[in-house]
Amino acid sequence: MSVDVAALRAEIKARQAVLQARYLEDNDANALLRQRSADVDDILCRLWNAFDFPASAALAAVGGYGRGELYPSSDIDLLILLPQAASAATEAKLERLVGHFWDIGLEIGHSVRTIPECLNEAAGDITVQTALLEARLLTGSEKLFTTFRKRLFGNLDPLGFFEAKRLEQQDRYLRYNETPYSLEPNIKESPGGLRDLQVIFWIAKAAGYGDTWDELGVDGVMSEEGVSLGKRFEEFLRHLRIRLHFLAGRREDRLLFDYQANLAGRYGYADNESKRASEQLMQAYYRNAKGLTLLNTIVLQNMGAALAPENLQRPQDFDEHFQIVGNLLDVRDESLFEREPGLVLDAFLIMQENSELQGMTAPTLRSLWLARERIDDAFRADPANRAMFLKLLQSERGIVHEFRRMNQLDILGAYLPNFGRIVGQMQHDLFHVYTVDQHILQVLRNLRRFTMSEFAHEYPLCSRIINEFERPWLLYIAALFHDIAKGRGGDHSVKGMTDAREFCENHGLTAEDTELVVWLVRQHLVMSQIAQKEDLSNPEVIDKFAGLVGDVRHLQALYLLTHADIRGTSPKVWNQWKGKLLADLYLQTQHFLAQDEAPVAHGIIAERQAEAMRLLRFFALSDTVHERLWKQLDTVYFLRHSAEEIAWHTRSLHYRIYNNQPVVRARMWQDGVGLQVMVYTQDQHDLFARLVGFFARAGYSIVDAKIHTTAHGYALDSFILLDVEKRDHNREMLAYIEHELEERLQHQLPPEVPSAGRLSRQVKHFPIKPEVSIRGDEKGTHFVLSLTAADRPGLLYTVARTLAEHGAELHTAKIATLGERAEDVFLISGGDLRDTNQRIRLETDLIERMKV
Questions:
Q1: Domain that residue 445 falls in
Q2: pTM score, whole prediction
Q3: Which cofactor does the UniProt annotation name (predicted)?
């Protein structure tokens, strides 16, 4: 057993040099990838054979190497497959083999497994399962490898694999802020990168749809146009990644500024009067990424529909123009928008107003994309379309999702031509990491998060302010226009102000609202400059800034926009110090302005607190009775609870804030239709599961719940309960619930497993596909779990037990039941949720257990 390591190392370098020279001459990306794989195959097989391994073992390529796509500096993933656990002699050989892998200069990732071990790992990790799907035998026992492949695919559930890969992609998109428009994108992992193409083929392979673009076209998964586009997108990215690897001399998948100009030159781009060569290259990349994300969406929807159970594919009527397929909006006629272009914006409003809709079908997306050409001057001048666009900004939900979707389909840029000019536009400074259009959408997203109670823990001051702010949609207009004039030369704030004024006047905003939007666009940089560059302890600085803003409303608006704007430049730009400076300037200026104004309670929170105090006076309680409890309650609590609920909680708890005994109070709800229960206790293990299990066993369905944890570690939870069997004994149950639940909580009895209830006939005939999303907050400490499913007895218990099994801790929850549909949001932490695979396992388990 003799291996000339130095000779093999030299041979690898020589072959790589030949490949590079040949590629630069013939520019054939596919040939390079195939030959690179073949060269490595040859080296590894010779090395394996030199060690005289048992004939019953096998060496296989997996991952990208397994499918024969080996880029110049990519990792080489191997599976060493054994018929049984390795003997001591075989282990010794394997150690020397792995050492030689590195000695000869190949970056190899390897695993040594038996078939049962492979199957076990694949069952617990979607990443491992995906890599093994692409396994290719290099040398060794063909019988063992064939058995492995047969058992792997025999254990494969195509629909389950599809759902897991969809969740994995969703998580990957979140890591890259759901945008392909980073100024230094990862051309492999970012949305619109090679991974989006690979996901298509992984799912296709698992479902038996084929391994090539042409096979997908034959199988009907893709149209002829889609196949052509897929090939083009793939070709562009393959060339770019190959050239990037050669240029960097190592594995590098980020299009860093350091490489962009050099790559642009190699693609033949040259600087001109309007754009640098690197900008031209990046705009070509963004166009490719934009088309690829849309193709990925359409193809995955096609495959998901084909794999879904038949009852989820049955269309449900919505209106004369649209229907619902699964949980997707579908056009009845693909020529709809050509005939009636005004319905283009209506489609996005429908998405906002119907929370059960999780997306649009492929025909709908395709029709909308084609209809972008119908958005002309006449369309933009139509009062109905202008009113519809404002409604999109004024919606209570879905604003960011739909504006991102409109941008992806080129509809936003068609409606706002000046916005269209900044799509894919680079920003050359030290702060921004997104193109101009994506930065604007990030600012819009940040403003929207201030309004959402599930994110109120991130920036409580901003959440409190925006919920006191009348017509917050005016801030969204300011966000759309604050950077819209970048790249036109001169002061973009001044030019953007002109665009904003024209928009406001055309769309019928009042003079007061127009003035605020225009002022915000003009002044959107001022507050950050003062906060970071001037001495805030100097009264003259505060006096001057107060004179600029004029009143509290302008101050609030500018603070919120500035906060969202700074955070929208880059995840790395914002820090606690900048946040403190900005908050200090806001609070000092607010105090300065308040000297000339009579203090008036305003805003949702202030109004609820004032009304709660008024209600408490009816019970002859003092004006200070609330203070001890309210000190332990945060913005989220006051946003979620009504004034009457706040007063009820305060009346029940003000004298036992630090009570060691659980407190349970129950009362009739809405003229005896149901019950409302309040639970107050020191937090304890599995508390949520205990509560929902108890209510289910008592025969009640939870139609609304607000789960809250106080600042001093107590659970303060409220539930609205309906009797599942519609028995007429709610009033008699009040004392029972208070006594029995207090006893169970006091003795920390284990959760009660509820009996399985019956599904409604409507859910049986029109099933609701469960959807789960886990998104990390900006501080990286908590995660927002959103889920949608068909409501049924025991559903919340199932969720609670699943969270407990995964070690996730529950902090707050908002439970809502809309007819037969449950829409719940949980703020959770722990349970290794920072690990992508752990999150996907939790999402997968929840989806599987919520299926009906």
A1: 417-594
A2: 0.83
A3: Mg(2+)
